[in-house]
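3-isopropylmalate dehydrogenase, pasting as requested.
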Amino acid sequence: MKLLVLPGDGVGPEVTAQALRVLHWFAEHRGLALEVTERGFGLVNWQRHGTLMPDETWDRIEAAEAILFGAIGSLDQQAVIPSEERRKGSLLRMRKALDLYANIRPIRLLDALLEASPLKPRVAKGADFVILRELTAGMYFGTPRGVETLPDGTRRGVNTHSYTEGEIARAIRFACRLARERRGHVTSVDKANVMEAGALWREVAGRVAREEFPDVTLEHMLADNCAIQIARDPRRFDVIVTDNLFGDLLSDAGGAILGSLGMLPSASVNDRGQALYEPVHGSAPDIAGKGVANPLGAILSAALLLRWTAKRPEDAAMLELAVDRALDGGTRTADIAAPGERVVSTSGMGDAVLHELSLLQREA
Ligand SMILES: NC(=O)C1=CN([C@@H]2O[C@H](COP(=O)(O)OP(=O)(O)OC[C@H]3O[C@@H](n4cnc5c(N)ncnc54)[C@H](O)[C@@H]3O)[C@@H](O)[C@H]2O)C=CC1
Ligand SMILES: CC(C)CC(=O)C(=O)O
Ligand SMILES: [Mg+2]
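Structure tokens follow.
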């Protein structure tokens, strides 16, 4: 498997380093064919090349089968880099150009982390759902967009929320196929009560599910209510499918259930067999460079890579089990530690997962 690694900014390089160690372990011990190329992304490119996106890197991105991405974003960047340059080197450009429309964000609360969750155990125990976020349309991509100056000299910022029937239908199909492999239940989330694009989303979701997936149960839910239900009763969800903006917000809310955004992995895929794997969190400038970031979102993204791109479901399950066991054994980064628990560094968590992998390999 040819893997392009883009560690990016902030904690991105720290967490991707641990995910890479794990993938190299699978290459060494389980016969994973792995060919890694690493390139800069974000501020590092600006500093080294004077552009956020060298042509050579972009060519590699377009041709990649799988990308392991860290994170992008720094506050300095907003100030010093012209907006045209920022667009060239943005994560949104990559998602759009590769047509990575299906962003899969699994949220599973392990018993070992019940203490880290802000929810009561009787509410959160066993929560296990997936958010399928549409990733290439909606508010982040609609036109017109921009900031214009009005005749009175004040400015107006404009972003447009737009969805075609085709963009909605393919997201719903993806969610229904996912649900078939799980508990067969899809919650389609929109704001059909106030947005025309939301009403269309609801209509198309209903039609596609009814006509093409009669074995899947579909419910509709308004996005504001969904935010409440994720905190009130997360176990009621199996697959949530929603648009780009709501999916961004609701998946961070899902991260809160686990106590930290650092736990959440994601995969973004297109219909041409390309995929981008990244933790859900951003560059976390508040903790970057300290060696304290939780690498499990990145490591669990590597498990998704083993399952979907490498087509090695047994290795993916083995890695997920190694993570469960490391947590069961009490290994904690600061973000998920309860008072009194022993805290390890980013690489310490990587060590614990590798140790569990070695034990599992010996047991096999
Ligand atoms: N996919 C991406 O590359 C994303 C990039 N961003 C960018 O990241 C920058 C920072 O944004 P924020 O709103 O602060 O979001 P963030 O996700 O970077 O951080 C939110 C909170 O979660 C914590 N956190 C995040 N990852 C963690 C980890 N691995 N371990 C422990 N704690 C972790 C941070 O310390 C912070 O308190 C911005 O420039 C934003 O645009 C934000 C989200 C996603
Ligand atoms: C560029 C942003 C939309 C990234 C983000 O917040 C995310 O993907 O969750
Ligand atoms: Mg987000």
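Note for the archive: Residues 117-257 form a domain with the Isopropylmalate Dehydrogenase fold (CATH 3.40.718.10).
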